[in-house]
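Private note to self, pasted from the team thread so I don't lose it. Backbone tokens:
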């Protein structure tokens, strides 16, 4: 039987075991396969320091994506989705399960600052971050239900995107039919 996204197990230890069995350098296709085995949608989030370190230390509990255009993960992620957390120009260091996804758009200039202030503690923001995002028209806030720091692995990818959707609803449905 195939799980729906709301039934995805939050047992990240099982997921970590699948990743470790796959090796030290994984491709996007391998991550898609791992997500399919977990019967879930997957994503890769590229994070800069100090935010990735704050997240794995438990100081940051909400990930934000603030953009001028409507791009992933806006509207493409939901509760139960799997997110691989990759350091910019570095390895994947953690995996998380989304507990809540919030989307706001089309925002007026400066409106994002209020949204950030409401979530300041969970976002663990640097002082100048809100000001740098005043022009954002779309906001995604991801509250992780669980997060596990894993043995780092290299991700073989060629895109320069800051967010990669590994599988959408149609991909998960097709995997369930196999």
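Design output:
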């Amino acid at each position: 039987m195939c799980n729906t996204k709301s039934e995805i197990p939050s047992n990240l230890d099982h997921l970590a075991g699948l990743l470790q069995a796959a090796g030290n350098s994984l491709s996007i296709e391998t991550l898609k396969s791992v997500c399919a085995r977990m019967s879930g949608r997957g994503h890769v989030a590229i994070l800069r320091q100090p935010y990735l370190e704050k997240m794995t230390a438990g100081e940051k509990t909400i990930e934000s994506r603030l953009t001028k255009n409507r791009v992933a993960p806006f509207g493409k992620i939901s509760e139960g989705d799997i997110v691989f957390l990759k350091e910019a120009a570095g390895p994947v260091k953690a995996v998380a399960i989304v507990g809540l996804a919030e989307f706001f758009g089309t925002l007026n200039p400066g409106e994002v600052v209020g949204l950030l202030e409401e979530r300041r503690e969970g976002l663990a923001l640097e002082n100048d971050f809100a000001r740098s995002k005043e022009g954002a028209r779309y906001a995604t806030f991801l509250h992780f239900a669980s997060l596990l720091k894993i043995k780092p692995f290299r991700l073989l990818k060629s895109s320069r995107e800051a967010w990669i959707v590994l599988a959408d609803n149609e991909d998960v449905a097709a995997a369930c039919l196999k």
